[in-house]
Design goal:
heterodimer, A: alpha+beta, 23 strands, B: alpha/beta, 2 domains, 4-stranded antiparallel beta sheet, 8 helices, 10 strands
Chain lengths: 418, 301
């Protein structure tokens, strides 16, 4: 395995109850030989106890006691497998509506979303919801898996009709790249191994698609952004004057000698060194954790952002955003929430609700103003001090935030800057 | 393809370093839960890289069950001295002596569960608000649902059904007095990733991970080391075998596997060919289907 080249791909799975999500993941793990013998014998024993003739593949992913008892997935479970081409992280998220928050969570870091459709049921309301969330969170690639093809006699017509229906709903969403694969997770058709039952399907099985889908262009490599996590000042004999700014690059490429501006202060300097542990780098790019030192001594602390001086973000106290409410306690009118954005933290109030999205029809409702669990709405926020933002469509890191209830400390909402 | 992308090991390292720096920034008194096992060693290595040229800004907290491999303790003291970090030791033996916990009986008895009390005591005594652990989601099915920042109530308990949603890389570290967090920076690593990383970085690990000759008995499908804490049963034969350990827990429960792997490159090869999970040799996980979940709810690592 070429670990010096292989990339990491994160994907999420969405589907309704009984669409076979857990079975699909179990199948991926099983057929890619990522299941160990002790896990296998454990699952085999439970399957037998339950009276199944076959291995209940879903048992590989259903982890918590309550889930095993109810036979459903109630929380995001993360699974891992590696093939000779890539390492994969799966966020297995629950399908029922009351757990939308878990789906949003799983989707927030995903490169790819797998949307499962039951071949017998076709595109249903849940499919719309899941696809809408995937588009809202700007997952770059969607793979629609039409599952349970074995139960519709592997019919090409059924598949084609579902593709057409999905094309229609997805045309109204911001989805860039959609692919369709007819599968049977239970029987293993087109998951890892090409199906012998559907000669009419000429494209790659699911795993091959996941292994080869191009993801390097999904991150922003144009707008250089560096939120400061912490300042390193060892004040030791070996490093008496060292003053480094530690963080993870949130966008673009930085090089030594680049002129940078610090927000919110607006002061400028030049990058003296880019350090990664005891190595000095000429350049560093998005998603790398590094330390910068600057030519000038300027006041910089956690929550500040370094950017290239020729390409600046928006500095504002008023932001328009799509909000996804994640807590069972509804939003309190005029209440102050803690807003966490990159490494910065402020107070914010929801000034205005422009509209709520009816997630079944995808229509905007401008009359409804109350924000409850699972509400998705467009709002205007006002913060106590300026935030340094980009739109979420431009940058998933500098364009996202969470709201925290200061009284309960709970994370109550996820936001994406419009 | 553009050259501006990281391979997955770099990406995992970058993510873990980001998390460790967030811990430093968000908590008053964070500590690394140090077991002397490879995961906590990797974690300590990552902390060294995250804050260089500053020193590691965390204490190491070791829960000493008294049933240790002597090699683990030697390695722990060596590493703490080398990195110049503060070492805190919580003693299960003390808790037993004080009557805070009662030792299990029988030949299968372990001090595994007893650690929970000592761990929570140490967290309270030293006012640790962020306990950084080497737990990985691939280890066990209950761990698959862990967050990076995992909230614990004032009894130190985990409520898996009511976890805070964790989006993007925005971690909510807010808590009330008396509560604490467990933080798992290498959540997304697998056993294989850990070994690849140890190999790539040339990280020192205890000799127990390498194949060595040792007196063992066959119990629970693995070679359990003979020690002062383990009395072989009548039908158990003490034999000398060349073994190594995939995980290090108490000497009473860590089962060895027969192996010839005497360096890290050979271990990586061996692990890649393994057909059993690493915790498959841990007697503590075998007690029931949900053994890990039940212990985690109580406050286990």
């Amino acid at each position: 395995m070429q670990i010096d080249k292989n990339q990491l791909l994160r994907f999420t799975t969405a589907g309704s109850v009984d669409d076979g999500k857990s079975t699909l993941i179990g199948r991926l793990l099983y057929d890619s030989k990522s299941i160990f013998e002790d896990q296998l014998s454990n699952v085999a024993a439970i399957s037998k106890k339950k009276g199944f003739e076959h291995l209940d593949l879903a048992l590989f992913t259903d982890g918590l006691r309550d889930e095993r008892e109810q036979g459903i997935t109630i929380d995001v479970a993360y699974r891992y497998f590696t093939t000779p081409k890539r390492k994969f992280i799966i966020a297995d998220t629950p399908g029922h509506i009351q757990y939308t928050r878990n789906m949003v969570t799983g989707a927030s870091t995903a490169n790819v979303a797998i949307v499962l459709i039951d071949a017998r049921k076709g595109v249903i309301e849940q499919t719309k919801r899941h696809s809408y969330i995937a588009s809202l969170l700007q997952i770059s690639h969607i793979i629609v898996c039409v599952n349970k093809m074995d139960l519709v006699n592997y019919s090409e017509e059924v598949f084609t009709n579902i593709v057409q229906d999905y094309e229609e709903i997805s045309s109204k969403m911001m989805i860039k790249d959609v692919r369709y694969i007819p599968i049977s997770a239970l029987k293993g058709d087109n998951v890892v191994i090409r199906s012998q039952q559907m000669p009419w399907y000429q494209n790659a099985p699911l795993l091959h698609t996941l292994e080869t889908i191009h993801i390097s262009s999904d991150t922003n490599k144009v707008d250089a952004r560096f939120p400061v996590q912490t300042v390193l000042r060892p004040q030791s004999n070996d490093f008496p004057d060292f003053r480094g700014y530690a963080g993870k690059i949130a966008g673009g490429i930085f090089r030594t000698g680049d002129q940078v501006t610090v927000y919110p202060s607006g002061l400028s300097s030049t990058i003296k060194t880019i350090n990664q542990y005891d190595e000095l780098l000429e350049e560093a790019f998005v998603d790398m954790s590094v330390v910068f030192t600057l030519e000038d001594e300027i006041d910089i602390s956690r929550g500040d952002m370094l950017v290239k001086s020729n390409n600046v973000p928006k500095v504002t106290q008023d932001l328009t955003a799509m909000l996804c409410w994640l807590h069972h306690q509804p939003a309190k009118p005029k209440a102050k929430y803690i807003i966490k954005h990159t490494t910065n933290e402020q107070k914010a109030i929801i000034k205005n609700v422009y509209y709520k999205v009816d997630i079944d029809t995808l229509k905007r409702n401008e009359e409804a103003k109350e924000i409850e669990m699972n509400t998705i709405c467009k709002v205007q926020l006002r913060t106590t001090l300026p935030l340094i933002i980009d739109s979420y469509s431009k940058n998933r890191t500098t364009g996202s935030f969470i709201l925290i209830d200061a009284a309960t400390n709970e994370t109550v909402a996820a936001g994406m800057v419009v | 393809m553009s050259k501006y992308y990281q391979n997955y090991i770099d990406e995992l390292e970058s993510e873990a370093i980001f998390v460790l720096r967030e811990v430093f920034a968000e908590f008053q008194n964070p500590a690394i839960l140090f077991s002397g096992g490879k995961d906590s060693i990797v974690l300590t290595h990552l902390a060294k890289k995250a804050f260089y040229p500053s020193k590691i800004p965390f204490s190491l907290l070791h829960i000493d069950t008294g049933h240790n491999f002597p090699e683990t303790i030697k390695f722990r003291d060596y590493l703490a001295a080398k990195l110049d970090v503060n070492l805190i030791v919580g003693s299960v033996q003390e808790a037993i002596n004080e009557g805070r916990v009662v030792e299990e009986k029988g030949h299968q008895a372990t001090r595994n569960l007893l650690q929970i009390t000592t761990l929570l005591d140490a967290i309270e005594t030293h006012q640790i608000d962020g306990a950084i652990g080497g737990g990985r989601r691939d280890e066990e099915k209950a761990r698959a649902k862990e967050r990076f920042f995992s909230h614990r109530d004032d009894f130190g308990q985990w409520t898996p059904k009511n976890q805070r949603p964790e989006l993007w890389n925005l971690f909510n570290a807010k808590m009330h007095y008396g509560e604490h967090f467990r933080i798992f920076p290498i959540s997304n690593w697998t056993e294989m990733d850990v070994w690849h990383y140890i190999l790539r970085e040339g990280i020192e690990i205890p000799s127990l991970y390498f194949a060595h000759e040792r007196e063992v008995v066959w119990r629970n499908n693995s070679w359990i080391p003979v020690s002062e804490f383990l009395i072989p049963l009548k039908n158990e034969k003490v034999v000398t075998k060349k073994v190594r350990f995939r995980t290090l827990g108490d000497i009473t429960i860590s089962g060895g596997i027969e192996s010839e792997a005497n360096n890290i490159a050979k271990i990586v090869k061996e692990v890649a060919a393994m057909r059993e999970t690493e915790r498959g040799n841990r007697a503590d996980d075998k007690r029931s289907e949900t053994a890990m979940e039940d212990r985690k709810k109580e406050g286990y690592f």
